[in-house]
Amino acid sequence: MGAVLLAFFYTLNYIKTHTEKVFPYLYYLGSSIFFGVLYWFFAKLKFSISDQVFWKEIFDLTILEIFTFGYIATLFADVESRTALFRDATHDKLTSAYNYDAFDIDLRELFRKVKTTDMKFTMLMFDIDHFKHINDTYGHLAGDAVLKNVVKIVQTVIDNNDPKIKLYRTGGEEFNVIFPNYKLDDTKPIVEEIFSAINHSDTKFDNNKINLTVSMGVSQMSKDDISINDFYSRVDEALYHSKRNGRQEITVE
């Protein structure tokens, strides 16, 4: 009987690790009933339980398992639904990068921490050069493909360096990257890697190869910044300095 219980728990663990569903209700229910019947069968042999009692226990077990796993499945579905809603509220639907709402929340929280603690953070702002020309020449679907490709490239660089860094799509072709607990100099190799990765890439769309370049502005927040707008404007000005000076450039303020 102990072996039945061990086999049951092993089966549950196998189902958990080998199914894609968050809560595979039918698999759990079927295995639970199967091992429950097996357990009561050995109990019947060991304790000479009558057929009437045996089948009554099997019936009660089945009803209990249906309601128990059904309730757990409902809880999992609710959690999954809430997770999906939260993701939709904080992520850009086209690129899956964090959206402006998430950016605004995180930026305000980091601003508060810098003003009240010893925390540092740096922000990169960049946009795709001549993006309107890409849309006008190849169409908006091509523009969408470019945006998704840029996010994929940048996110790969981030994942290879520090997953705590966050990428946000804050406008049409405008993006921000927040480096929490990074001084300005510490971001340099990552910023340059992002810059190089994008500028040496292209996006293939309908037999067309679209070459990409970006302009960037970078700055570290200071305790002397009176408001978020002071800091944001400095990063924004650094970006536009790059754009005014021929694009495909990094400006550090």
UniProtKB/TrEMBL annotation:
Q: Supply the alphabetized keyword list.
A: Membrane, Transmembrane, Transmembrane helix
Which Pfam family is one of those matched by this entry?
GGDEF
Q: Would I find Transmembrane among this entry's keywords?
A: yes
Q: Output the InterPro entries linked to this UniProt entry.
A: Diguanylate_Cyclase, GGDEF_dom, Nucleotide_cyclase, Rev_trsase/Diguanyl_cyclase
Q: What CDD domains does its record include?
A: GGDEF
Instruction: Please name the SMART domains in this protein's record.
Output: GGDEF
- Please state every residue range assigned to the domain named GGDEF: 119-253
Does the keyword ATP-binding feature in the UniProt annotation?
no
GO molecular-function term, one example from the UniProt record: diguanylate cyclase activity
Q: Give the transmembrane ranges.
A: 25-42, 54-77
Q: What PANTHER family does the database record attribute to this sequence?
A: DIGUANYLATE CYCLASE DGCM-RELATED (PTHR45138:SF9), REGULATORY COMPONENTS OF SENSORY TRANSDUCTION SYSTEM (PTHR45138)
Name listed for the protein in its UniProt record: Diguanylate cyclase phosphodiesterase domain-containing protein
